[in-house]
Design brief:
There is one protein chain. The chain has 2 domains: 197 residues, Isopropylmalate Dehydrogenase (3-Layer(aba) Sandwich); 136 residues, Isopropylmalate Dehydrogenase, CATH 3.40.718.10. The protein is 40% helix and 18% strand. Strand 11 and strand 12 form a beta hairpin. The relative contact order is 0.16. The model has no long low-confidence stretch (mean pLDDT 96). It binds 3-isopropylmalic acid and manganese (II) ion. 3-isopropylmalic acid binds next to helix 4.
Length: 359
């Protein structure tokens, strides 16, 4: 098949990790007889420097003409003044809303060979495999906000409509059917009206999926349960801000923030794929970043936007095989061992990919 992929390397370690994922996507294309066209565009802090806009019109166009977008990370100390008029994060929010990417899939797996890096006891991490589905274009991130003239009052508004909750709930229940048929919905229905609407709507959608078990948890209680009994959970669906907080917390289960991919999807095949880590300015340019989250995001791109399931699995299996064979970047290296640079680690994944059987 032919596909156009727009790459937004972004800031910090973004360019390092996206270039590795692109090189592996090129291997996939060569091996499976596909032709992928890659277009690069400016996004985030570097786009603010160049155009005064974190998501400039040329980048909007480059994304509109692509089948999918692969994104590195945005932001850094240079643009971190929270009072600045233009900020890299605004580009991210505009990208999500421009394309109606309301469902953010964040799969979290605990890798047994990395259990030593997680702050939890290894036995708690056995069989941890959670798919977080975070609502991404509604809630407090997009509700009316205001800072009052004299600066002593400010507010943000959490608004949800039934339609917004329904469509993300559908994604969650459909995903659960492909997994262990269990959806946990997280809210704060004991306090928030928007959460009561959320819970009611989840229950309405659940009636269409009688084969899927549904439960509800309050976000504060779940934040604790997720760490005490992480293997209990399968699909977890949450509104935008709760999902943001819980998925960073869940990263400790995998041993490193560098391991985790994400997909942001709307109603069609188009999606934006990015690792869940940030731009890591402290290690940028040193060639030591862990590219796994971006490589696994590229696998999600193959699966969800291009419909290439076998190719997605090949890439995921290659990562798994490289890890099993002991390939480790510094963040997941064994104590006292130096860890591979990003490029050496990528070569280990590439070799594992070459060894994956086609079929
Ligand atoms: C994320 C990030 C963003 C978010 C920020 C950078 C706006 O934390 O993708 O999780 O809060 O959604
Ligand atoms: Mn976040």
């Amino acid at each position: 098949m032919h596909a156009t992929i727009t790459v937004l390397p972004g800031d910090g370690i973004g360019p390092e990790v996206t270039s590795i994922a692109v090189s592996l996507l090129k291997d996939i294309a060569a091996r499976y007889g596909h032709s992928f066209t890659f277009n690069e565009a400016m996004f985030g802090g570097c786009a603010i420097d160049a155009y005064g806009d974190s998501f400039p019109p040329a980048t909007v166009k480059a994304c509109e003409s692509a089948n999918a977008v692969l994104l590195g990370a945005v932001g850094g100390p240079k643009w971190s003044d929270p009072t600045a008029k233009v900020r890299p994060e605004q580009g991210l929010l505009r990208l999500r809303s421009h394309f109606g990417l309301f469902a953010n899939l964040r799969p979290v797996k605990a890798y047994p060979m990395l259990a030593g890096h997680a702050p939890l006891r290894a036995e708690l991490l056995e069989n941890v495999d959670i798919l977080f589905i975070r609502e991404l274009t509604g809630g407090i991130y997009f509700g009316p906000r205001q800072e009052q003239g004299d600066g002593d009052t400010a507010w943000d508004t959490m608004i949800y409509t039934v339609a917004e909750v329904e469509r993300v709930a559908e994604v969650a229940f459909k995903a659960a059917r492909m997994r262990r048929s269990y959806v946990l919905s997280v809210d704060k229905a004991n306090v928030l009206a928007s959460s009561r609407l959320w819970r009611r709507t989840i229950n309405q959608v659940a009636e269409r999926y009688p084969d899927v078990k549904v439960e509800h948890a309050l976000v504060d209680a779940f934040a604790m349960q997720m760490i005490k009994t992480p293997s209990r959970y399968d699909v977890v669906v949450a509104e935008n801000m709760f999902g943001d907080i819980l998925t960073d917390e869940s990263a400790v289960l995998s041993g490193s923030l560098g391991m985790l991919p994400s997909a942001s999807l709307g109603t069609g095949k188009f999606g934006v794929y990015e690792p869940i880590h940030g731009s890591a300015p402290d290690i940028a340019g040193r060639g030591i970043a862990n590219p796994t989250g971006t490589i696994l995001s590229a696998a999600m791109l193959l699966r969800h936007s291009l419909g290439l399931e076998a190719e997605a699995l090949a890439l995921e299996n290659a990562v798994q095989a490289a890890l099993e064979a002991g390939a480790r970047t510094g963040d997941i290296a064994e104590p006292g061992k130096p860890g591979l640079g990003s490029a050496e680690y990528a070569e280990r994944v590439r070799a594992a990919l070459a060894a994956v059987k086609i079929g």
